[in-house]
Predict the structure.
Amino acid sequence: MGQAATAEQTLYPNPLYGTYARTPQTFVRGEGVWLFDDEGRRYLDFVAGIAVNALGHCHPHLVETMKAQAETLWHTSNLFQIDGGQKLAARLCAATFADKVFFTNSGAEALECAIKTARRYHFTEGAPERSTIITFEGAFHGRTLATIAAGGNPAYLEGFGPPAAGFENLAFGDHDALNAALARPDVAAVLIEPVQGEGGVRSVPDQCLIGLREACDRHGVLLIFDEVQTGVGRTGYLFAHQRIGVEPDIMAVAKGIGGGFPLGACLAREEVAAGMVPGTHGTTYGGNPMAMAIGNAVLDIVLDEGFLESVRERARDLTQSLSGLLDLHPELFEEIRGEGLLRGLKCKVPVKDVVTEARNQGLLLVAAGDNTVRLLPPLIVTSADIAYAMDALEATARVLDDRSAASA
Ligand SMILES: *Cc1c(COP(=O)(O)O)cnc(C)c1O
């Protein structure tokens, strides 16, 4: 069967955009934390669709929910009432700072809504000059024209014409530049990831987030958290900021909230969202009955008693295992980063070599910026799975060590 699939593939040219340097694996099935390729090999999935498959692959509750919804109603449009959407929004609000929610299909769209909400708030308050969004070096907010301008990564902006106006990217940790910016009359909001994901799993120190909240309040500037990667239990809390107790005015969510179904959300305080009246924003698919059924099913599990507690326990296992690995292999790794089940290992060898060899050993990992390898297990990961991952990383380290000894 595997061979037939491979032979069949060669009959087709590849008309997909060349925007991804894909690895050769074709996965044909997923079950929990495992992925199976077309040659019958199994891999422990510590990519989880880039922090998307929060409940692993084909979680029974999600499968049942999708089947039932598929036989009931898929899509109607936002012209009509959608009960599942009101329910999911109410549950998100009950669990957070927020009073209002706009559903999207992706993280970038959630950020677009967050940016529009912030600007529209100041416009409605009679301060339309407040339109600049302050962001930070190493940030990632998506791939639309606005969100690449927000992220400020030159590699993502190159060749795409003038960057969207109204974004200013500051150095990570430059408090003087930040305070100077916040005092300006053109600033609408600060946009920040509590832990930078794509940028290299860099945590913002708690004190900085606390100070940032105070400074924003002092200057009448809104605070937007991008919790697209950190949210929905990833850090052991429903949202990463809830551990610290610092609340934003607006928050972008996606990835884990759909468990693999395209779903995002922008959450805001009532007062802040007041300017988003009929006609100011829209989406064809966002928040459709199918997406809402699945989003609610994800929350059923993540908000279940003891679930987040168990994520925090597994996070402690992972920290312990990674510390051991770091102690044993200081020639390969230099630092453990991140929180909960969003972890990074800063590498001394090219991160690509680590990712490739780990895959040979049956463990899927994903690179992030700053030569860091990311570990993003599904939140249902067990201690035994973590032990398996550590064995694979240990084997990876031995291969890389042997290789460098041979070339020395
Ligand atoms: C993935 C990601 C996005 C973009 O989400 P898409 O669904 O790819 O548009 C935005 N912000 C952060 C922090 C992300 O990790």
